[in-house]
Write a structure and sequence with these properties.
single chain, about 180 residues, alpha/beta, six-stranded parallel beta sheet, 6 strands, binds flavin mononucleotide
């Protein structure tokens, strides 16, 4: 049963256009009273590049940052990953955040939301991520959502301005993520 949902914002840029989107999605999830939803911003998590002496699959961590990240991911029953596309792929901080752990991800559902400046909405990055998630045992929930022209969705106040059908599409993704357990 999915009780705790983490919305992972995968850009570490201080000007991230995805952060307002991730906040908006978090708000949609928080409207579901049975769910405890938290926004986890990889900029705030500020993980170093993986430097654990043992394999993450051993689960024996020496760095405090890894132990904290492990506790954060363990606390979630499911995830929504909000990710930009950089040069046709997913972001390095997202890959590092995944690789830093292993068993903590296993058998949990993940909804995927990608975005980009261009017309693809980051769908190629999302497809690139699928096999990585499969390796750590995360189960991708369908449908996924890809949002093109992300800059056009940022309002003058810095908030996210959804297109006409986006709330329905994201709610369908949230239904799938929370049902899939
Ligand atoms: C390193 C880098 C590479 C990018 N590559 C692409 C790309 O291949 N296709 C695209 O449509 N937009 C690309 N963009 C534009 C991003 O999709 C857009 O700037 C988006 O806002 C980035 O997400 P962020 O602001 O949350 O970091 C790229 C941006 C960066 C910083």
């Amino acid at each position: 049963m999915v009780r705790t949902l983490h919305v992972l914002s995968a850009s570490t840029r201080h000007v991230s256009a995805g952060r307002p989107l991730a906040r908006w999605i978090t708000g949609l999830a928080q409207a579901r009273s049975h769910l405890a939803t938290e926004l986890i911003d990889l900029r705030d998590i500020d993980l170093p590049l993986l430097d654990e002496p043992e394999l993450p699959s051993e689960g024996r961590y020496v760095h405090a940052s890894t132990k904290e990240w492990s506790a954060t991911v363990t606390a979630a029953d499911a995830f929504v990953i909000v990710m930009p596309m950089y040069n046709g792929g997913f972001t390095a901080p997202l890959k590092n955040a995944i690789d830093t752990l292993y068993g903590e991800w296993r058998d949990k559902p993940a909804g995927l939301v990608s975005y980009s400046a261009g017309p693809s909405g980051g769908a190629p990055a999302l497809e690139m991520l699928r096999p990585v998630l499969g390796r750590v045992g995360l189960r991708v929930a369908e449908p996924t959502v890809s949002i093109p022209g992300i800059a056009e969705h940022i309002g003058g106040d810095g908030g996210f301005v959804p297109g006409p059908d986006l709330a329905d599409r994201v709610n369908a993704l949230l239904d799938a993520v929370t049902a899939d357990a």
